[in-house]
Structure formats: C-alpha cells, structure tokens
Amino acid sequence: MKYTDHVIGFSDHGIRRLKWIAPMTSERFDRGLSLLRHLKSTQLLLLVELGKVASLRKAASALNMTQPTATKLIQDLEAAVGHPLFERSSRGMRATPYGEVMIRHARLMQIEIVRTREDLDSLSSGASGTLRIGAVISAVPFLLAKAVAALKREHPGLQVSIDAGTSDALVGSLLNGHLDVLLARPIVLGDRNDFDYVDLIDEPLKVVGRRDHPLASRSSVTVRELGEWPWTLLPAGSPMRKVLAPVFAEMRLSGPQNIVETSSMMTMVALMHESDMLAVMPGDVSDFYIRHNLLVEIPVTLPAVMGSYGIVTRRDRPMTPGVEAFLTQLQTALQEQRRIRAELTSDG
C-alpha cells in the first residue's frame, strides 16, 4: 500500500478518526503512475479548453497550436488511456464518458498547479500556505468567526479566504477545487459519494424584524398571522426555502406573497430596518443581530425544520495542514458553543 486517506470527525474529546477511505493498492498506484508518465501539460490544457468550447479548432487556436498538433495530442492521449475520449462530428467534438472524466480531472490538476504556485509565492513572502473556506451564513457569526480568529492567532502567515453563501451554491465550488473545506447542510449532498460529511450542530430558526416592528410588542404571534406581513427571504430553491415549506403551508399559502429575495443577510437587515419586513434566520445569526440591537425576535414558535450543518470535504482529496488546523480550532469553538448553551439552559 503506497497511499491511504482518512476522514476526521468530532467527538467530545476532539478530533477523531472515523474511517478509512479506499486504500490505494500497489496495482492502482502503478497504473496511475503509468498514465501520469504519458501525460503532457499541453494535453491537459487542451482537455480543459475542449471542455469549454467543444471545438478542436477553437481549442487549438486558444492554445496557439495548429489543429493537426492538437489532433495528434488527443490521439496520443486516447492511446495512453485506452478509451475514446471524444466523438467527432460536423458539429464539433463531444466528450465521451471517458472524456468527461479526463476533462474533470484535467481541470482539477490545473487548479492544483495554480494552488501550488500560490503556496510557493506565499511561502517565499513569509506566509505559510492558503486555506479557502466556504460556509453557510449560519456558521459565520459564532463558529466560523471564532475558529478563523483563533487560527490566525496561531498561524498568522496562513492566507485565509472565506466564501459565505447558501449550501447549494457552495458545494459546486468545493467539487471543482475552488474551496478546501465547506460548512454546509447535508440536504444538498443527497446520496452523492463525492463528499464526506461530519455533523456539527443543530440550530433553531427565528423570525426577526426591526426593533420597533408592530409584532415585537406582542406576547405571542401565530404562524398564520405571519403570512399577512412583507418578507425578505433567501432565493427560491435555496435549502432554507425548501425546509420552510411546512411553515408556509401552515400560513395556508404557498408562502409569503409580498417578498424580496436576496442571498445577502446584510441586505435583509437593511430592508427590515427600512420597513415592516420580516425574515427567518438561523439562531446564531439572529442572536448576533439581536445582541447588537439591530433586530428583535418576533414571539412565534417555529417547528424544528432547519436541521443541522456540518463539515463537508472532498472524499478524493487529502486534507491539507491548513484544513486540519482549521478543524482543530472549529472543534474548540464548538465546545465553547455547547458550554454557553448549557449554561443558558441551566440558568433558564
């Protein structure tokens, strides 16, 4: 065995090994090396271009090579792979299933080479690598912010970027190599086997509005009454909108009719500040704005429909030291979150 990979997870005692993933046998490793020896950088670049334009002439032109040269490169690659990669027709080049696999991995290899260059440049300037995190907005105010702040204190040279958005929008970025690790909801993963998922935390949903909203002074509000008010919501099709369907059904509507859609929580806050709009936010996000006197919670009880979010990683990609360091800090922040919630429950 020349290579093996593992998944890490959380327990009350910290990071733990969960399972071994597809150990690399000697035969598989040797076959992979054999293909690597036959690959040329120009072939990889040509595959990426063909994935974009599906035209050998246009792909060759983009790479400043002649069409016969491009044809020979593809023929040599098909011979090395042992399968036809493209179907030729008057309409251009259409990738076969084997070609689609090669194009996908060529793109990933291109991204990894770019990342290698970035890490080298980062190291030469005194930094210590890069870490690209994707996260649902729910994770930002507490878990993510605390974990990244602690990570930067321990590794000030690590270059960290954060892409906050909805789970469905971010999972593609993880798959194509633009993100290293993702905090997202499992609802978008389905039964796909491209990813490993480790549950982190369940969270409630809260309805919020501006501080002097007419409903804020009420002792209680029914879910059905909420349908009469304007709303600002995440876009249709987002995981939160999907899990809110039972709530909207209770309003005897397909959902709020007077709405403004946005993927930005800051935009939601601004809209609520200027109007009687309501919004549904995950507990940690709403608590952050309530604590800073920007919003108030509307006294209505929502069903527990949001569920959890957790760590999503690519199954076929080993974790970098930056990812492992981030997950260690994430575990510390999670333990602190649990301690605070336990104290609040005890005080209540």
UniProtKB/TrEMBL annotation:
The keyword DNA-binding applies. This is DNA-binding transcriptional LysR family regulator. Belongs to the LysR transcriptional regulatory family. Gene3D superfamilies: 3.40.190.290, Winged helix-like DNA-binding domain superfamily/Winged helix DNA-binding domain. Residues 39-96 form the HTH lysR-type domain. PANTHER family: HTH-TYPE TRANSCRIPTIONAL REGULATOR YBHD, NITROGEN ASSIMILATION TRANSCRIPTIONAL ACTIVATOR-RELATED. The keyword Transcription regulation applies. The lineage of its organism: Bacteria, Pseudomonadati, Pseudomonadota, Alphaproteobacteria, Hyphomicrobiales. It comes from Rhizobium soli. Pfam families: HTH_1, LysR_substrate. Keywords: DNA-binding, Transcription, Transcription regulation. It comes from the Bacteria.
